[in-house]
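[step 3/7] inverse_fold.run input=structure_tokens len=72
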């Protein structure tokens, strides 16, 4: 029996690249394709939630009752 050359990969040489490409495409589609009820993508909904959260934090900090403790 002939010893196997470690540099020869055989018939499955490019299979990993194909699998990574397919997984990346599925992930991209899942994140950027609009979701039917709201017609927004998951990324758009995430950015909107982060903006709302930031606006609420700024409003709470600016509120003299809840945001400031220097009056006591």
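[step 3/7] decode complete -> sequence:
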């Amino acid at each position: 029996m002939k010893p196997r050359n470690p540099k020869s990969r055989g018939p499955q040489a490019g299979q990993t690249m194909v699998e990574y490409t397919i997984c990346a495409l599925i992930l991209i589609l899942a994140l950027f394709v609009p979701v039917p009820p709201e017609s927004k993508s998951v990324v758009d909904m995430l950015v909107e939630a982060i903006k709302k959260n930031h606006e609420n934090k700024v409003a709470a900090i600016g509120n003299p009752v809840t945001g400031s403790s220097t009056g006591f």
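[step 4/7] annotate
Residues 36-66 form one domain.
The mean pLDDT is 83.
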